[in-house]
Structure formats: structure tokens, C-alpha cells
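Posted in: Structural Biology > Protein-Ligand Complexes

Title: Requesting predicted complex, hypoxanthine in pocket

I'd be grateful if someone could produce the C-alpha cells for the following input. Sequence and ligand are given below.
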Amino acid sequence: MTAFIQGLPKVELHLHIEGSLEPELAFELAKRNNIDIPYESPEALKLAYEFEDLQSFLDIYYQGANVLQSEQDFYDLTMAYLVRCKQDNVIHTEIFFDPQTHTDRGIAFETVFNGIHRALDVGESELGISSHLIMCFLRHLSEESAIDTLEQSLPFKDKIIGVGLDSSELGHPPEKFTRVFNMAVEAGYLTVAHAGEEGPAQNIIDSLEMLKVSRVDHGVRCVEDDKLLARLIEEKTPLTVCPLSNIKLCVFDDMKQHNIVELLRKGVAVTINSDDPSYFGGYMTDNFLAVNEAHPMTHQELAQFTLNAIEGSFISDEMKNRYREQVMDYVSKF
Ligand code: HPA
Ligand code: ZN
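-- Reply #1 --
Done. Output follows.
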């Protein structure tokens, strides 16, 4: 089954580019930019990646982003992620970036955007990986700051497919961002939001209704509300689940307790994603392997995760058809 999973074409819909910063690259960028990292070595930094909840991770994650300074740094970060994607047979990826993490440190929006986007262009032309970019608002910051960020993004609107919502879910419910999400929809952006990761099922309902999201990021706490669960199945709402992330952040005690395969078998449009792979111990293939080890699946079930991701992605119908055929072909030949 390992070989099947390794070769399976994959589509990633939940990846924070800042969360793909590997300790080795962090040290290289720190040296390049003359920035001090309060750890002896990449290995020592990696040992600090032990978290008890979302907030304990976010504290380290925002600190880690400080080494990103120039357009070239953002390019190198994104290119490294795309090279990893290629190894895992990722054919399409939709990437989150957090502008406020950088603009609040005095880095220009276009520095961040240009570096990431240039790498995505090269990823497409040289690695054959298609992609979209989604700009996230940090929910622990104000609505005003989100609106300011939305305005800064407008010159790049044709190269950003949508807006999302990440950071601390508890204490910062979807309704805080209703106005800025409405403005984003009016500007032509699609919307997604993290909900039901640490927060209650009601956050999933509010994201659907107030923020008009096309998919829900995480969403694993939907099982706490039977009516919501039935609605997600009926409306085929994609959930971008991140199994290794959920274990690292103690959303579930261990992979055997994880509900992703139960959700798949109930007919929920769940997908497998890596979230912040450098911090959570694995990229796409690692996530598939970990889920399958705890919950053995058939080839068809494993392929269904990719089919759900293709359907839930923001690519054209024509591309969806092409990618679907690629997956069916792979399954039938294996
Ligand atoms: N949840 C919320 N915010 C985040 C995450 C996450 O899993 N990763 C990066 N920012
Ligand atoms: Zn996330």
C-alpha cells in the first residue's frame, strides 16, 4: 500500500506556506539576513516543535517567520515546498499566505506576494504543478487590519483566488470578519475559513452562513452536530482535514481516534492536507500513510481523497476532468 500511496496523484488544499519553512532553510535565511535564531542548530529548533494546543504552535510559528525578509526569501521558501510536492506526486496545490505576519514587521505586501508568486510560476512551468494562492486574515488581529490587508491585495487580485481565515479560533469567531468577507466577495474573491479545529461546530455553520465559504478548513468538530453533518454531506461541502496537524496540536489524542476515515465512509467530502508540514512532521504522502496505518483503506477509498480535493479545488471544470482521469487511470493500472 505504501507504493500505491506514494504514487497516487494528490491535490493539496490546506497548506500555509510559512508553515513549510524547514529548520535548515530557517537557519540559512537567518544567516543571509543577519537575524538571530534563539536555538543552537536546526536539530535543536526541531526539538522545540512539541505543542499542547493551537496557540502554543502559533507562538513558535510566527517567531519562525521573522527570518523571511526579501522577495528571494519568499521565493526560496515556496520553491522548497514545490520541490517536496513533486516528490509526493502533488499535481495541484492551493496555498495560504498570511500577509499580516509580514506587513506588521515592515515587509511590503508586494515583497511577500512577488516572491511566492514567482515560485508558483516556475513550479507550473518546470515542475508541472498547478496552483492557486489564498490570502488569509489573522483572526487574532482586528477587523480593521483585515480590511487594510484586503485593500493592499487589490492590485494583485487577478493572481489571488480567494481569502481565508486562520490563527487563534477560540475567542475570534467567524462573525468578527463578516464585513471584510463581504467586501472580499464583492471584490471577486472566493472564501474559505478555518473552523471546527479547536472551536465548536457552530463556527462551521457561521462560516458557511456569514462568510459564504466554499470549503471549511479542518472542520473535524462537525461530528458534534448531526444536523450539520447531514448538511455537509447533502451540500458536498469540502473539508480540508490535516491529520498529522490534528495529532500534533492535540485535537485528537492519536491517529486511531481521528475521525477522517469515518467521515469519508459517511460520504463527507473530506480531503487530506499537510497544514504546516515542517512543524507537524510530514508532507502529503506522510499524512496519507499515517491515516492509512491507523485506518487501513482500499485503493478506491484512498483515491477518493484526491477526487474530493479535485472537486473541491478552485480550478476550471476542464482541469478537474483532466485530473480526475489521471487519478482513475492510476487506480486502474495499479
Ligand atoms: N490553524 C489555525 N491557524 C493556523 C494553522 C492552523 O492549523 N496553521 C497556520 N495557521
Ligand atoms: Zn491551517
